[in-house]
Amino acid sequence: MILPKPNAVNDFPNHRGAARLALAALLVTLLPACQKRDAVSVQAAAAAPPSQVDASQIASPQESHSLPRYELQIAPSDFAALENDPSSNNTRPATFKANGKVFAGVKVRVRGSWSRSWPKKSLKILFEHSNPFEGHHSLNLNSGWRDPAFVREPLAYHVYAACGVPAPQCRMVRLDINGQFGGVYVQVEQPEKAFLARIGMPGGSVYKAVSRGRDADERDLGNDQAYQASYDKETQKNGGYTELAQFCRELESSPDKLDFFNRNIDLEHYVNYLAATVLIQHWDGFNKNHFLVYDGRGSKKWLVVPWDLDRTFGDHWNWSFQETRLPVLLGTRRQPGITGWNRLEDRFLSVPSLRAKFLDRLSELLEKEFTPQKLFPVLDQLESEIAVDGVKDRRKWPSSDPDFHSGIAQVKAFIEQRRAYLVREVARLRDGA
After folding, report:
1. What are the CB-based long-range contacts (under 8 Å, 24+) for 72-79?
2. What is the pTM of this model?
């Protein structure tokens, strides 16, 4: 299952429900016994009220109960070099196989920051420009080693997309290395040219907040050199940092904040981004772990794209996985996170009309998207997909909690508890408390 897929399935007319149920029953009768489990799942989707049918409930047997499988062929000495020097970005040659296609001449390196210290490393695979993989020139395979549930990151990207945020696609995959099981990984789409084309912003400028000094929080850094130290420009690299510097400078100095946001920010997408960030409790993106995208060829407006979402759904900076009560306004000057606060968010929420718009949208999403009815089926499908290979991974790469089933149950508990907390908090904030 590739996540996210916003608006993947339209509501079907009610008169088709009976036909779908009959078709599902016929499938159960005709399919061989080895496929009965998949037919039953189709029947369940058909029997659901049309308005509740979700893309995750209507999937092929291959999608429902197995992971996409990739294979990496690399000289053992080269792979050992990657493992033994994880802090380096040096690449090693390899061959990559997927979907029956061979990609010779790829390069592999370790990726990430903190995850480089884990036993199971995250990997980045770089493809030749003449032979991209699924339209992309790089492939991010995140370790997932520390997540007791294995699925926080794909679920987080799913929530952002369901809330209307242009978000990278994400899915769980199996990676074999030199013919042997390597592990289960989280594949995350890189926000590059193919991503921009997919979201309707071809030619946009993408800036990655890398926070080498924890100041990639949209503050006015003063000069190009300072911006280069805090943001990596991923596209339009020959254009410099002038547009970002101008944006941050005006954000800080504009006397009319509402006018600034109306002229410079895609308001709908940014409100959705803030709301989704609160829902999944993403506290690690205020001065890093996000992208700024400027639509220089179209709307001339900016939007924020989420990134590095493993520390969500209860994963807290105190190392627990059960925190559900981080504040709605976390990340503002008055309520900074452990890493700091974000200037764009703070100024946006200081405008009464924009703050009201944010609270209204958060309330709407709590009612329509961030619910057990919407998210538990997604979790169930992810759990089904990793059922076999997830066990192999935990055996190969032991972690503090080898039972990812209990980890997924913990994520479900977070959703219920976080939702209840936010419903109360939104009401309190609306009352001006």
Report:
1. 72/96, 72/97, 72/108, 72/125, 72/175, 72/176, 72/177, 72/178, 72/182, 73/97, 73/178, 74/108, 74/177, 74/178, 76/178, 78/108, 79/177, 79/178
2. 0.85
